[in-house]
Amino acid sequence: MYTLYKTYKPYVSPFDPCPPITVKSYSTPPNLYLGFQPPNLPQFPPREALKAGTLWKVFYDPYYSPYERARED
Q1: Which contiguous run of DSSP H or E holds residue 64?
Q2: Pick the residue with more confidence: 43 or 66?
């Protein structure tokens, strides 16, 4: 199983004047986890494909910033 959001812990210097960010996150696109495009993938209807930015449903990635994700939880 894969996740579209990854996290890591950056180095926090004891001499940093700002409050540290202890955990950072980033988004990875779904096409990284699909080795090749198999035939007969489900598709969006044309109008929805324009909104989603892709024709195939497996490649759709609804990007949320970490701040938006925190509000949803």
Answers
A1: none
A2: 43
Give residue 53's domain range.
5-72
Three-state SS for 12-61 is CCCCCCCCCCCCEEEECCHHHHCCCCCCCCCECCHHHHHHHCCCEHHHCC
Q: How many domains does the chain have?
A: 1
Place of tokens 């449903």: 57
The mean pLDDT value for 14-43 works out to: 88
* Residue 5, H or E segment: strand 5-8
Contact 6, 28 (CB under 8 A): yes
Token pair, residue 58, equals 């497996």
